[in-house]
Amino acid sequence: MKWLHQLRSTFSQHKYAINAALLGDSSELAWSNLGYWSATAQTYPEACRALANHLADSVQLTASDHVLDLGCGQGASVLHWQQYYQIQHLTAVELQAECVQRIQAIFPKPQNIYCQSFLNLKQITFPQHFDVVLCIDAAYHSSLNSFLTAVSPVLNSKGRLAFHYLMLSPKFLNSNAVDKMQLALLLKAADVNLKQLPDQISLQQQLAQAGFEFIQIEDLSEPVLAGFAGYIQQQAISQDSVEQYTTLDLVKIKMTAKLCQKLAEQGVVQYVQVTAQKK
Fold it and tell me: pLDDT digits over 247-259, tens only?
C-alpha cells in the first residue's frame, strides 16, 4: 500500500491542482480532467474535449443557453464552450484562485469567472438563473446532496443539469469488509468519501427529491477510468525526461492512473455521466 500513502500525501498538498503539461497539454488554458478515450481521441487534449462534448451534447447545449460551468479548472472548458458551442452567456466558478486569475488575465474582456466553491453558490449574486449547469469531472469530490442543494436554486425552471459522478455498482454488495475498507482508503486518498457514494437507486432518488426529472445515467468507466490509466501507462512518463517538473507532480499523475486502473478492474465503483432536468 506504499503508493496509496504517496497518493494521499500528494492530494493533501495539491488538492485538485494538476500539472497538465505532464499529461500532454501545455497551453495557457489547459484541460485537467480524466478524458474520454476512444479511437478518435488519443491525445490528452482530444480526450478532454471529448469528455466535455459528451457531457454538453447530453443536454443538447445551444448557443443561446445561459450556461454555468462549475469547477472550470485552468480554463480550457471556458474557452471550449465559447469557441466550439458559440456560447454567448457564460459564467464559470472555480475554487483555485490561481486558475481564476489566469483565466481573467488571458481573456481580453471581463468574464463572469468567480473564485468560489461550487457548494457555496449562494455566496454569489448571479445576474440571472441558468438554462444549463455543467460540471466536468469534479462533483464526486462532494456529497451528492450538497451538490444538488447548491445547484438547484440557480437553475431556471426546466433547466438542464449534467455532471460526472462515482456510483456504487451491484458488485459492491458482494464485497467483504476488508475489500470495502481498502476501497474506502483508496477513494479517500483522492478526496472521495465512499460512504457518500450512492448506488443507482439512491442517485435517482436524491435527484428526484431535489426537484429533477428525466434522469439519465450513463456508465463511462471503460472510456474514462480504464482509458486514462491506459494512456498514462503508454506514455511511460519518467522523471529523467521531465526534469523541469517536480517529483510530486509526477507521483500525483501516476497514482491517479493507478487508482483509475484499480477501480476499472474491480468494477465496484462506476464512473457515470448524469443528466437531468429541473421540474
Answer: 667 778 888 899 9
CA pair distance 20, 171, nearest whole angstrom = 33
**For residue 10, what pLDDT band results from cuts at 50, 70 and 90?**
very low
DSSP 223: I
SS3 222: helix
Radius of gyration of the chain (CA): 18
Q: Is the dihedral of CA 45, 268, 193, 145 positive or negative?
A: positive
Single-letter residue type at 97: A
- pTM given for the model: 0.90
What is the residue type of 226? Answer: A
Q: Are 179 and 267 in contact (CB under 8 A)?
A: no
Exposed/middle/buried for 86, CB within 10 Å: 0-12, 13-18, 19+?
Answer: exposed
Torsion of CA 233, 36, 112, 124, to 10 degrees: -90
Segment 146-169 mean pLDDT: 97
Question: Which own/partner contact pairs does 141-150 have at CB distance under 8 Å and 24+ positions apart?
Answer: 141/16, 141/191, 141/192, 143/193, 143/196, 144/196, 144/198, 144/203, 144/206, 145/206, 145/210, 146/119, 147/118, 147/119, 148/206, 148/207, 148/210, 148/212, 149/210, 150/118, 150/119, 150/120, 150/121, 150/122
